[in-house]
Amino acid sequence: MRPDAYPSLAPLGGPQLWARRVLLLAAPALAIAAFAIATAGPAQAVGPYPDLGKCRLFPAPPESLPASAPSLPTQSAWTQDVSQAPRAPRSAAIVSYINAHGGSHLHPDFGSPRAYGFSYSVVGAGQPKLPIHYTAYGDESDPGPFPVPARAPVEGGSGSDGDRHVLAVDAGECKLYELYRAFPDATPQPHWNADSGTAWNLDSAALRPEGWTSADAAGLPIFPGLVRYDEVAAGKLEHAIRVTFDSTRDAYVHPAVHCAGDSASAAAPPMGLRLRLKAGYGLGGFSGGARTIAEAMKRYGLIVADNGSNWYFSGSSDRRWDDENLNQLKRIPGSAFEVVKSAAGIHSC
After folding, report:
1. CB 140 within 8 A of CB 213
2. Residue whose C-alpha is closest to residue 348's, from 275, 276, 256, 274
3. How far apart are CA 263 and CA 188, in angstroms?
4. pLDDT digit string (tens) for 180-234?
5. Do residues 122 and 52 make contact, with C-beta atoms less than 8 angstroms apart?
6. What is the spatial distance between Cα 274 and Cα 313, in angstroms, rounded to a whole number?
7. CA 272/CA 289 separation, integer angstroms
8. Element (H, E) at 326
9. Helix (H) / strand (E) containing 200
10. Does residue 10 surpass a pLDDT of 70?
């Protein structure tokens, strides 16, 4: 989210993240500078981004699966059409809880400022792999090295003291690498320091181990839930979208596998909860990319992935976004959403 969304001492993901992750001091500026010198080369552009080639966002649901099926408990849920899926029994109570604990309208957490939103790298064969030194959640992280570019863009910019996510897609191997609270370091050899990290096989719908985090609080991948400029410009946003809420339940539902909540209330949204824009909500006043995004919210919905500002949904950092067009989405109230029934049960923590 925007660097000015909270006071300067709060991380970008919102103050609730402090309950889950201890905010560590940023790597010294001299170490970052030394790292950049040791790995000299052009910095990665932050939009436009290279194409993903043959890679897909995890295996698609079975063709035989109807749109009336509950939300899947695997990574295939990201591209599952849930437009006709059953509504969850406690839908109204959950939406009321959300709106009573923060903002009550949709908010795009991305836009044309290049430091706003999630940046990412697309790499190919031959990309050097760098060691990953874990500083907080190594026991729930995948071992390196990762083919994450030495000068990969960092969420919020290189000087950010927020969540500092670093995302990289290997378009040759169709693997996704994600780091949380990542800082470059030059000594004793070039590497990344990160609180946690995950290597995702985009050809597999498998979950993380139960109870494990990822680069996101819910133990979910970040990249598949981003609204990316190129797909919106093409009018084909065909996946669910990552969303955050101020107060969440200390529980999760698959495909999420990790808790990060502050409430035991059954009305609070657990990690992995799926919502969709109601079919009857009119889109006649929406145009351009905003309409494409709203239509995707009806068909694929939102998946709760982290704590943060209410109804903030995630997208790529890209200078091509039209902020005035995206602002149309801020008119949509949380009450226009409903909770989708899941095929999985809720895991309390």
Report:
1. yes
2. 256
3. 43
4. 999 999 899 999 999 999 999 999 999 999 999 999 999 999 999 999 999 999 9
5. yes
6. 13
7. 26
8. helix 323-326
9. strand 196-201
10. no
Structure confidence at residue 45 as a pLDDT band (50, 70, 90):
low
Residues constituting the chain: 349
Q: Which helix (H) or strand (E) holds 288?
A: helix 288-299
**Residue 255 token pair:** 């495909």
Query: Quick one: how far is CA 221 from the chain centroid?
Result: 6
pLDDT digits (tens, 9 = 90+) for 130-153: 999 999 999 999 999 999 999 999
**CA of 11: how far to CAs of 46, 247, 307, 329, in Å?**
21, 16, 11, 25
The values of phi and psi at residue 44, to 5°, are: -65, 135
The rounded mean pLDDT for the chain is: 89
Tokens standing for 236? 């084909």
Q: Is 109 helix (H, G, I), strand (E, B) or coil?
A: strand
According to DSSP H, which parts of 42-127 are helical?
91-100
Residue showing tokens 């509950």: 70
Between strands 274-277 and 302-307, the pairing is antiparallel
The amino acid sitting at 85 is A
The first and second tokens of residue 122, run together, are: 């697309």
Q: Which residues contact 323 (CB under 8 A, 6 or more apart)?
A: 111, 112
Q: Which residue do the tokens 């889950």 mark?
A: 20
Can you tell me the distance from the alpha carbon of 234 to that of 219, in angstroms, rounded to the nearest whole number?
30
Token duo for residue 334: 């949380």
Among 95, 60, 97, 64, residue whose Cα is nearest residue 80: 60
Residue 34 pLDDT exceeds 80: no
Q: Strand 191-194's sheet: what is its strand order?
A: 132-134, 191-194, 183-185
